[in-house]
Amino acid sequence: MINKYILRLYITGQTPKSERAIENLRRICEEELNGQYQMVIIDVLERPQLAEDEKILATPTLIKELPPPLRRIIGDLSDTEKVLLGLELRRSI
Amino acid sequence: MPTVGSEPQRHIEKLETCIPGFDLVALGGLPRGRTTLISGTAGSAKTVFACQFLAEAILHKQESGVFVTFEESTSDIRKNMLGFGWDIQRWEHENKWAFVDASPQPGAEPIIIGEYDLGALLARIENAVRKVNARRVSLDSLGAIFTQFTDTNALRRELFRVVSALKSMGVTAIITAERTEEYGDIARYGFEEFVTDNVVILRNVMEEEKRRRTLEILKFRGTSHQKGEFPFTIMPDQGIVVIPLSAIELKQKSTDIRITAGNAELDKMCGGGFFRDSVVLVSGATGTGKTLMVTSFMAGGANNGERCLLFAFEESREQLFRNAIGWGVDFEQMEKEGKLKVVCEYPETTGIEDHLIQMKKVIEKFQPNRVAVDSLSALERVSTIKGFREFVISLTSFIKHRELAGLFTSTTPTLLGGTSITEAHISTTTDSIILLRYVEIYGEMRRGITVLKMRGSMHDKEIREFTIDGKGMHIGKPFRNISGILSGNFVHLAPAEIDRIGNLFTEDDALTDE
To answer: What is the pTM of this model?
Structure first.
């Protein structure tokens, strides 16, 4: 079954942490999701209201909106295996 | 624009919070443009304080505020604060109040992978401050964020960033934090380590089976404040009301104008009546005539066209009015003429701090010349010793500040002799003390009266006998053939002995207390 992944990544400005998170997420998506994804990057410094709406506290925060269930992952996504587990792309090892 | 310089001589301005009583204790208010930590155990009214800090600014200063909640949901806060008369929802529509909801969200816990910061929270606070042009920010309460994120070191660093950001926004902020003990570490998680400039502690202590709330300003860096714990209470339509005891100025003008006690003979014993702005304590066992003295005091005032206010905590209205008639005083007529107001209240209806605030309100509204409280001992029952003493000091200075005459009664626990705890705690704050005592003479109970103390005046030092009839109190001759009245250990003296003692002390000697 092919579900389209919708992923939103909230960051604050161009910090090393933000850059790392974007890079990690992009790599994971390319390796694992076969082009079946849509990735949105939101800078909360520019669009604070979007962070308010989603009640985001920490950055970077990744929200997997689709497919359900909704998942939130906080951090720079530096551990690929854990990210895959969190996104439910892997069964637990 | 003020710079964030650190010249030591730079004067720190205060921001008037408008929280009743707090600004007196804080000598003007919270340090402006700074963050103050409000620390307290569960149930110590931290959230009320945090909300009221914003609400008072909206109500009294037309200044808006931002409320960051880490714990309670925004809908709970809106609902809970409505009882204090704070319509947060309306204020939100009017752009006077903005929430930043950082409370835990329902659903799956977020997973933490790698490094993070609280940049989003900061951006949201800044956004909200900009949106409503806030001058004040409340963050409530920190402990909750430590349960959402586990890396406490990172959190501390991040919260420090939030505090510096608040400073550069120029807002005055408060942050609430939990403590586990009433007298222990300032806050959990070592938060005080980095917001240590200004710390206020709220306490809710169990003392002698009674709850007592106090507020203490631990420190204001670079500026002054009152020291020690101050009692406060939470009023239904007002929120927190701090009772600033020692902050009350004690520079009453004193006068030598005399007023009548409502009894010519007693006036004479007191050297011409009570002073107009003095507080008199009448102490005696049950049935010695304390309520009669209160009644005469009220009637004496009303007859001179003064306004009189009576707080009765022991007897019902009907009882008081009936008693007064029995002594030839018509309370009902006096009330009709607007010269008297009788407020009857059961002491147990509320805490002593609330009684104090209500009594002050009534005094302010009725604007009396005389105030009587019958009896203080009844109020003592519902209070801790400390709380009671603070109550008396506060009420006394309030009455004297307004240059009113006060008369308090206190009941001694034993029929003969003895002093009440009330006296022991308040005798130094009252100007005059009158004792009423039973005197047993050969199987008969008589009554005695003496003026023990009369600040700034000569007075009669004898213990005189008095009787009570349909016209009130009649003071007669001193007890000559009996001693030990004050202690209750009577010794009857033979006439020869009296003469001998009389010859030893021909001068008018001071009466010694027990």
So the answer is: 0.73
